[in-house]
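Blinded run. Sample ID left blank on purpose so nobody reads anything into the name before looking at the predicted structure. Input follows.
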Amino acid sequence: MRMENEVETAMRKQIDELSRMPVGQLRQKYLEVFGEESRSNHKQFLFRRIAWRIQALAEGGLSERARRRALEIANDADLRVRAPKTKFGPDVTLDPKLSVSRKLASAVDPRLPPAGTYLEREYKGRRVIAKVLDGGFEFDGEIYRSLSAIAGEVTGTKWNGFLFFNLTATEGDPNGKALGRDLNELVAFLA
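Blinded prediction complete.
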């Protein structure tokens, strides 16, 4: 069985001390060991990097063969995973058909009927009528961002707005939209 020498004992002692240090002291130790400040405040990262450096200094670090191999890998041109960003505008070698130059507009939920449609529902004897707008919904003269907000206002509890207004895919609608009433239908209905 191999006996530890004085260098290994001192190294283990230093690493044990590291495990009890707070982040501030680890950052100071990192500065001592590496000669530069760490950009990290992650305790486990700092501990591992400093412990590795202490071991490398005590035992001699990487062999010359390992260093040469690391340089070969680092110099390998095929190693790059992502194209570098250019300082002078877009890369002309990229296919413009495959590039996105602006944000895509968010798609409208397919369960929603078109803007201008009135949704109605009876809840505890109260007729609830909401109008679908381009950017939200109108109910009792106020604008709401979601049907769930309207359902919550009416019921006093959290509701899924689509379920509250029964906006689910139906057999009669090939697009999967449940249709509300047009203004003319609603006027005729209320008259």
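Unblinding after everyone has recorded impressions. Residues 49 and 110 are 52 Å apart (CA to CA).
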